[in-house]
Amino acid sequence: MTSSTPDAPTHGRFRRWLGHLALPLVVLAWVLCVVAPTWYQAARACFANYDLGIYVQAFARISFADPNPWLSGRQAFIFNDHFDPVLWLAQPLTEVLPAMWAAMVAESLFVLLALVPLFWLHARGLLSRASTVLAAGLLLMSVGAVDALKYPIHPTTWSVLPWVLAGVAFHFRRNGLLMVALVLLFSCKEEFAFVGVMLAVALWLRGDRRYAVGVLVLSVVWLAWVYGLRPRLWGHTQDHVERLGRGLEEGWLHYLWLRVEPSQLSRMGTLLVALMPLILWTWRERLKPDWAWLLVLLPLLGIRFLGMAWRFHYVAPLMAAALMGFLPVMRSRRPPAWVLVSTFALLITTNENNLRSAWRTMVTPLEFPARCPDEPERMASIARGVELLTRERQSPVLIGGNFVALLADRDEIFALGSPQPPEGRVFEWVMVEKPPRGEIWTLTAERVRELIAIWRQDVGAQVIIDDPYVFMAKGRFTARD
Fold first, then answer.
1. Are the CB atoms for 187 and 152 separated by under 8 Å?
2. Closest among 456, 450, 416 to 432, alpha carbons compared
3. CA of 23: how far to CAs of 27, 118, 400, in Å?
4. Rounded distance, CA 446 to CA 62, Å?
5. Which among 47, 42, 52, 53 is positioned nearest to 415, based on CA atoms?
6. How far apart, in whole angstroms, are the C-alpha atoms of residue 176 and residue 160?
7. Exposed, middle or buried: residue 293 (CB in 10 Å: 0-12, 13-18, 19+)?
């Protein structure tokens, strides 16, 4: 008689194989659903000058001979805009890759390498496989992380790696590694030095007072350089603090309403929801996250709340920082299956729009995104214009923002809709996509059509390309006609 009892050894082998494959499957899902569609869109000139064009031009120009290069597309020196010297760590990639691809690869690597400290803990038996898979899923596939990678590129997204390094170093009292991680973190964006101040408080509270003083000194010196000495020594710096006060001119009630209106609360809630199974399990089991570490969230949350910055690269660090507060919980106890299943279910549902966008990008490239379809005629027209402007390297050129990354190693490139020289500029070349194609932010489609009509009729203009996709001409043009 054949037994109906499940084959226990077979079931056990299946669970072991599932355990071994879970982590590679998370990474594979991230590559296929996030990295590949974003890279494919970059190859099709889908992204505006902000921020891909800005940082690609920085990658193309930064060198020991020119450590703080002028970015014509941004009309600013790169480190007078944001102070993010972490770019120097990725700059060697430009020796083997075009600047745009060096930047794209660097961003993905910084996020992927954030898993290495977790792998190290798992290999040493300090973190269970379930905890490692859970942390990897939250780091790679939370809606904040996905949104950040879909908006390339910015070193704020790169901060995921130093956040995880700092969290591991803090919990394991590796104070030397903690200092290295903080320098790397501060190098990603000037706001992170405020985090160092709160981390000094956390170290003081747990009794590491000597290191608390060291972290506090590092943070204060960094802040003094960024906000005090840098403008005095390097000249005008971009005022990114201004956005924290937007709406205040209309009164405090209006100011606060802008920050707690339903759309803002919805974004905050969407970012938080994937952590709810972990939070619920921690509460039910009466486990304790590291409350001292969670103090580091206060500057991040405050800046994002005041600046209404709950999208794109702004939110990538939040999940990494919050997750490190739960590292002691995941170390002490293996999360049950219901936590893993519900967390990954929430990661899928909160990313529904992102996953749909990724699917359409890869499966229907002739239709989606509509602004940058992978039509052979469109791509051939763009390639023709880029090739010509690459040969004609010295003359000033006004281009659509989505072409900046493709021409980043060329001198005298200016992005339509981005800041222009205050004295005005006459351009020898113009090249833009015709709406509805092309990424024309910050202009409207109507304004771009008006400009094309003016340029086409300009006396002496030599029209090079004027097909359904691209307008390109040589002559004497301005951006404010």
1. no
2. 416
3. 6, 11, 41
4. 36
5. 53
6. 19
7. buried
Sign of CA dihedral 170, 174, 179, 185: negative
For residues 395 and 440, the answer to whether their CB atoms sit within 8 Å is no
Six-digit token string for 200: 């000094």
Phi, psi at 154, each rounded to 5° = -160, 135
Q: CA 106 to CA 152: how far, in whole Å?
A: 11
Cα–Cα dist 22/340, whole Å: 11
N-terminal to C-terminal alpha carbon distance within the chain: 90
Which secondary structure element, helix H or strand E, spans residue 432, and what is its range? strand 427-433
pLDDT in tens, 137-162: 999 999 999 999 999 999 999 999 99
Contact 322, 275 (CB under 8 A): yes
Rounded Cα–Cα distance for residues 470 and 452 (Å) = 10
Please tell me the distance from the alpha carbon of residue 478 to that of residue 481, in angstroms, as a whole number. 6
CB proximity list for 297: less than 8 A, separation 6 or greater: 318, 321, 322, 325
Amino acid identity for residue 369 in this structure: P
Task: Taking residues 90-119, report their average pLDDT.
Answer: 96
pTM confidence score? 0.93
Locate 211 and state its tokens. 């290191």
Closest CA to 343 of 281, 293, 284, 289: 281
The conformation of residue 53, written as its DSSP 8-state character, comes to I
Given a cut of 60, is residue 354 above it in pLDDT? yes
Could you please report the per-residue DSSP string of 287-347?
Answer: ----TTGGGGHHHHHHHHHHHT--SGGGGHHHHHHHHHHTHHHHHHSPPPHHHHHHHHHHH
What is the predicted pLDDT for the residue at 439?
84
Report the alpha-carbon distance of residue 441 to residue 123 in Å, rounded. 47
Question: Which string of DSSP letters, residue by residue, matches 239-285?
Answer: --SGGGGTTGGG-HHHHHHHHHSHHHHHHHHHHHHTTHHHHHHHHHT
Number of H helices, E strands in the chain: 25, 7
pLDDT band at 480 (very low <50, low <70, confident <90, very high): low
